[in-house]
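Lab notebook page, bench 4
Experiment: in silico fold of construct C2
Operator: M.H.
Input chain length: 392 residues
Purpose: comparison with the prior construct
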Amino acid sequence: MNQFAQWKTPHNFLLAISIIVPIAFSSWMALLNNFVIERANFDGADIGLLQSVREIPGFLAFTVIFVLLFIREQRFMLLSLAMLTLGTAITGFFPSVVGLLLTTLLMSTGFHYFETLKQSLSLQWLSKEEAPEALGKFVSVGALASLLTYGALWVCLEIFHLEFKWIYLLFGGVGFLLVMWIAVSFPEFEANVTQNKKLVLRKRYWLYYALTFMSGARRQIFTVFAGFLMVERFGYSAADITLLFLANYGFNFLFAKKIGRFIGIVGERKALTFEYVGLIGVFVGYALVETAEWAAALYIVDHLFFALALAIKTYLQKIADPADMASTAGVSFTINHIAAVVIPVTFGLVWLVSPAAVFYIGATMAAVSLLLSLNIPAKPAEGNEVRVFKWN
């Protein structure tokens, strides 16, 4: 390998693709609540419906294993990124319920297939020793890309006063160009272990499945309703939301790699216990908050806990057969999105009656997750998946 080509490694490939989603998907999310309220006249039920449709591709993520019969994982990942970026680019041109449902479906299909494949390839290409810190590093790099994205979004909104459609087109287009660059710059890498090309559901992975399901439910409370609270109740503008995301990803950039290292030191059980205890407090705080400043503080703390969820992935890597990574990634994303398909639309109706009730239910979900996390062994491994209720 010549010196110029030495940087073309699987690790650097994973670093490079970690930049794409923050540019395309993060800009989509940052503008969404203001776009749907100001341009498409959405209410709580409409945003719930949109977010449920957004999660349908995640629910169908298990189908990735069937597509892999015809296309290699790495190539499929790049195709998924192209769908994500193109879906983002055209979002602003369809400010209606039907238009947003269709563009969201395209964007989300690319996003969820990509996330499934990224988890699979990361756990295949990284050793168990380096995985926690490396995954944290990828989050940190993505956070830096998000910081730059949100800074650029703020400039577009506050300095140049660009319309939503041109901002979506700009950031989706930049993401698509980066996908094309990665496609022509990196070779195809070989996997160390041939992956099973069929659906794999193993009884001994039951705790991982349960943690993944609860993680998907908790994520919806944050993704859908915490952001909606900021706009609907406290009147945050698109520029305000952008600044809030800047703060979120500033913390992630500074601490995500350290959090990954922390998980590697203390283990998955302690890391997840800390996360879920904190989340109970955060969700109760959302239900009771009366000021925009305290709501923003809760939002930042909530987002910071996302990095600790890496512990669920490293737990899987330690207990699973290496040949199961691709299939289990697809199955786990489907499990993660069972709640994601149902919660936004049903909780959107709850929101119309009592926004606080949505967050109290979220606190209950965090408590269930806490109980599950206590069942993780101090040193998880194949044959030592849980402390109690072994199911082989």
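Observations: The chain has 15 helices and no strands. Residues 11-373 form a domain with the Growth Hormone; Chain: A; fold (CATH 1.20.1250.20).
Next step: discuss at group meeting.
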